[in-house]
Amino acid sequence: MMTELKRILLAEDNPKDVELTLTALEEHNLANEVVVVSDGAEALDYLYGRGKFKIRTGNHPAVILLDLKMPKVDGLEVLRTIKKDDNLKTIPVVILTSSREEKDLVESYKLGVNAYVVKPVDFQQFVDAVKELGAFWAIINESPPGSVRKTKK
Amino acid sequence: MRAFRNLSIRQKLTVMSVFASGTALLLACAAFLAYELITFREGMVRSLAIRADITGTNSASAILFNDEAAAVGTLAALKADPRTIAAGLYTRDNRIFATYVRDDQKEQVALPLHLADQTDGHRFEDDGLILFRKIVFKGEPIGTVYIHSDMTEMNARIWQYLAIIFVVLLASSSVALFISSRLQRSVTRPLFHLVETAQTVSREKDYTVRAVSDSKDEMGILVSAFNEMLTQIQIRNVALQKSSEELERRVIARTQELQSANKELEAFSYSVSHDLRAPLRHIDGFADLLQKHIHSALDEKGRRFMKTISESAKQMGCLIDDLLAFSRVGRVELHETVVNLEQLVKDVQRDLLPDGQGRQITWNIGPLPEVRGDPSMLRQVLANLINNAVKYTRHREEARIEIGCDGSNSRETVIFVRDNGAGFDMQYAHKLFGVFQRLHNASEFEGTGIGLANVRRIIQRHGGRTWAEGAVDVGATFYVSLPTRKEASHDD
User: Fold this and answer.
1) Using CA atoms, how far apart are residues B158 and B156, in angstroms rounded to an integer?
2) Whose C-alpha in A145, B75, B185, B236 is 20 to 30 A from the C-alpha of A80?
């Protein structure tokens, strides 16, 4: 069976959250398609193919899961840079954060975020949320041209 | 008198001085005229008496010899004096003997044929002076002379005097006018200056100007009192301005303090929102993973421990969320419009928590007024109160929930939510609206204890009040009031 799979860029500084997110994505067998970066600067390095991602293949990820509070460059800054760049702004960006603050929500939507998800404290709810996110953006949603399309047996 | 009252001070002073000097002069002239008249009349009588005596002496022989022609001739000599209207000679027995009448008076004047007596005397009549003189010859009275003289000379004199008086009055009045207009300046000039100064002060609100006066009279006293008053006003003005500036400065400082405190609070709650939830998520997540990992090795007790860990983490998550929501209620801006409470109650009923489903609840919703307020916040108030009513009537077979308006007056509108649920002890009523204050056990009625605190804060921000009545196992009634008139909202 041929299944079309897409790459996910996860920008998250907290390794525990990374582990929980990957665990949740595993249930859809999506964990292998995730590139994890630990701060905003790395995320931008990855997207622009610079620094330690110089040798990265040309295509863009199908979706970016972005934490807001990160060292060096925070999530909103990354979002702003992506949405300003003609080359990158077609990539769907999902904010995945602990913050329920109204000003974060407003600011994110103003910058053109594609979805905003608050991480639930309840682990089961968290798993469900991340699973659905992964399924929607990496499988159901039709990505813009130029994204990675990988086939897997 | 009214016209005089409305004159300016300058005109009043002029009128007064001219009137006073004119009156004095008029009185003096009148006295002078009266004196002149009296003197003139006396002179008239005297000169007429002399003429009568001369005529009498000249006529003595004519009377004695009964020579009428001689007597008439003597009388005719009186013609030389045009003032003489008529003259007559009478005998000793008072009979008319000879007459003279001025040519132009012959028709009008008739001399008396008999005299009443023979005494000397005179009398003034309308048309002239009449005088009698006895004629005496060798100590014996032999007859009487009668002369009637007109007053033309005196009348002419009177007219002359009147003309003089008129001229004098006219001249002296103009001189008085001139002098008073000069003299009154010493009074009016400082007064006008004072008036001008007062107008400047009241027009320009400038209390630094001063009136000037060099006189030591009442005007000088008035000016210095006025200046003193201005000085006091100026001092007070300066003090007032200083204190208002000080107040403004303090308000600005206090506002800045508040703003920075508010900013800190915001940063704090932002940090709570971000950072406090993450470890909880990890606790719950890894507990869950652990349970799956060692599921077979866990006994009943172990599974209960795991469950407790998970539940505690979730509860703390709820607490954090509620606390953040509570702090948001205090911070966000109110968007006041007219709110239809009946519609709001319907909305809340529709979205009722699952707690109310499948239960027998009798709703009794009275007519509710429209109020002014923030619709989403008031909705939160009603949702809290109604959900509470549903929750605390859980153990009733038939729950009765009543919502109504407890009357509104000019000051406030009172809304209540009444239930027949678990109720509460009135001695703890003051704790009901406190943050995280609960009057029931968590195992009996779940909750974080933030709902009523939110209600109170929202209502307070609208400028209203909250209170409650209740009895254990009978029920509770919660009241909220909203000001009818729009008042400045304030936080506690």
Assistant:
1) 5
2) A145
